[in-house]
Design a protein that fits this description.
Four Helix Bundle (Hemerythrin (Met), subunit A)
Amino acid sequence: MNLPNKITVARIFLIPLFLIIMYVPFGWGDVEIGTYSIPIAHLVGAFIFIFASATDWIDGYLARKHNLVTNLGKFLDPLADKLLVSAALVALVDIGFAPAWMVVVIISREFAVTGLRLLLAESGEVSAAKMLGKIKMWAQVVAISALLLHNLPFEYIGFPFDMIALWIAVIFTIISGWDYFAKNKSVFANSK
């Protein structure tokens, strides 16, 4: 297993740590940021999530720069992204920061595309992430980060950046999913 793939696997292992921080009542209390307070667990969870998300760029950069792109990496990288985003979104629904229907749309798209990837793999194809998928992923990362950070610093001016970012993430999730299926519809014609 090469370094980019190890980084991807490390991202997967950060998911349980993120969930432990978000759910185990450590009793850390809140931190005051100006006139707002935010639970320290949410702040630490946001840091872990942002760090884990940044490894997505790092492993891709290293794989391309050092010609270490592998089929395992093409499979694991989007899987790690989907697991990380899904875990964070479920946690955000649980704490009441994200509407469940939006999360269902995002996670449903991820399951559908994963199913399509499996069909493609069965026919000998491994499909790497395309530009729309990368935009979708980063829109989701921005939205989740803003929600975990309680919309700070935008909360000071009453601007709902977190919800606008979540809407943008949902829109790109739908568009990129439709694009992925449209470009790979031939797999259904070949299946029996």
